[in-house]
Design a protein that fits this description.
Layout lengths: L4 H7 L2 H19 L1 H7 L6 H15 L5 H23 L7 H21 L4 H10 L9 E9 L5 H17 L13 E6 H8 L3 H6 L6 E6 L4 E10 L10 H25 L13
Length: 281
């Protein structure tokens, strides 16, 4: 008797072959490992799991689930567990790069959680602060106003205008400057930001200036400036009490990195790793 055309077409499909092979392997495993299969068929949903499902629902919807919704959550969890076990039994998880990466991430989360569970003492954080000062040192901060002279003019004219500005400063007269896209007043700006705006080394030139007096000329990558410094707050290494949260975050991050490295080394010690290259073959 001839096989119907549709059945013959399905029989040629690779997916059908894979499913049939998987079913045969599953049946063989069941025959050879009856106790394992029996244990694998038991699914226990205890009160702890139910509480977890309720909490997940409450976080998502900002309310507790109804009885009907809770029953749906339980049923969905059971189906998910069954699919998970059946997938493992068929080996679907093997050599899947997405699953491998996800499982690695979950393993790494364990070390992160361990670091987060640690409670560093003030002595540990003080030591960490002293050993990593560059992470926490603050920049000098400046407040000032300036008058700008454009250097895109003949040298003789520029020298004349600089000399006029210096005489105006000496006699207490106002200085005449050129138009600029820069603001004329900077308030509580870090030295690092000033160097980004005016060019490297500009903030260093402000350190030696007296407050509340016009001084200059000071050169930048943009031109020449006459400056009246109004405030200079030196940077430095703050006390632990003022930056404890930041120090603790950095301490936990470094601690997690160290724990992760130690964990990897312990795991590697349990494996015999061989890398075969083309030259070895």
């Amino acid at each position: 008797m001839a096989m119907p055309h549709r059945l013959m077409t399905l029989a040629k499909e690779p997916l059908i072959h894979i499913l049939l092979i998987g079913a045969l392997l599953f049946a063989l495993y069941s025959a050879l490992n009856p106790q394992a299969m029996e244990d694998n068929k038991r699914i226990l949903i205890d009160q702890g799991q139910i509480n977890s499902l309720q909490q997940q629902f409450a976080r998502a919807w900002n309310r507790q689930p109804t009885e009907e919704e809770l029953q749906g959550l339980i049923e969905n969890f059971v189906i998910e567990e069954i699919y998970y076990r059946e997938a493992l039994a068929l080996g679907i998880d093997k050599n899947d790069p997405v699953i491998r990466r996800r499982l690695r991430q979950k393993m790494e989360i364990y070390t992160d959680n361990l670091a987060n569970a640690l409670a560093p003492s003030d002595e540990q954080l003080t030591q960490y602060l002293e050993e990593h000062p560059d992470k926490f040192r603050t920049d000098d901060r400046y407040s000032f106003e300036h008058i700008y002279l454009n250097t895109d003019q003949p040298t003789a004219e520029l020298r004349k205008r600089v000399a006029e500005a210096e005489r105006a400063i000496g006699s207490g007269q106002p200085i005449t400057g050129d138009p600029s896209l820069l603001p004329s007043v900077f308030d509580d700006v870090s030295g690092r930001m000033l160097d980004k705006t005016f060019g490297q080394g500009f903030a260093l030139q402000l350190e030696g200036l007296d407050k509340h007096a016009w001084q200059g000329p000071i050169r930048s990558s943009m031109g020449i400036h006459f400056v009246r410094l109004t405030e200079h707050a030196p940077g430095g290494l703050p006390e632990l009490a003022s930056i404890r949260d930041k120090v603790e975050r950095e301490w936990r991050f470094d601690r997690a990195q160290a724990l992760d490295q130690s964990f990897r080394e312990r795991l590697l010690a349990n494996y015999d790793v061989t890398v075969v290259t083309k030259n070895d073959q």
